[in-house]
Amino acid sequence: MDQFLVTPLFGDGSLHWYSPSNVTVWMILAWVATVLLLVVGTRKRANVPGRVQMMAELLFQFVRNMVRDVAGPDALRYFPLIMTAFMFVMFSNLLGLLPMSFTTTSHIAVTASLALTVFVSVTVLGFVKHGLGFLGLFWISAAPLPLRPVLAVIELMSYFVRPVSHSIRLAGNMMAGHAMIKVFAAFAGVLGVGAVLPIVAIAAVYALELLVAFIQAYVFTILTCVYLRDALHPQH
To answer: How many CA atoms lie within 13 Å of 182's alpha carbon, on the beta-carbon side?
Structure first.
């Protein structure tokens, strides 16, 4: 599990909240990759796009359509925040697949910070736009009246569980995949020349992890869109 250890960037001392670490480096690299693709890569926009511009435009249109289809056209004003979250999570996942790298999204502290940012933002937005009417999200008017208070408690509990599931899903999937690759790599090291099967398994899991890196960014983003939709349209 050494690949998941957070280590200070300078020296071997203890970590503090202000200490630069390997997490800091790879989070900055994810930000740099996002800027290079979306800003630098599209700086010279052409009618016939090159490969970098085409990739940026495809990702842009993919997330924009997701926001519009899931949260509604009025949610497009919040598209920059959602696009930023998608790109950060995706590049953090992909960079974590490089040799000797560090997967920041495998740590619950990182994913919980992202999930709490989403949770607090959409909750504040819901109350700002609807006032106490936002509480209509928890009152299921279509249910029989005697059941509504019970369902309201259940809905309220599930609402506050959102940041937990939102963060654990991402961190758990990323950690599990990397741990599996490490296990097969250990088998390959023990078997020596007979390590063909573990090496094939590593290649297969690695290919799967490339897909998972994108899927987990998609899942995190689409859940953000669902929560945003509930803030914009809380009525059941």
So the answer is: 13
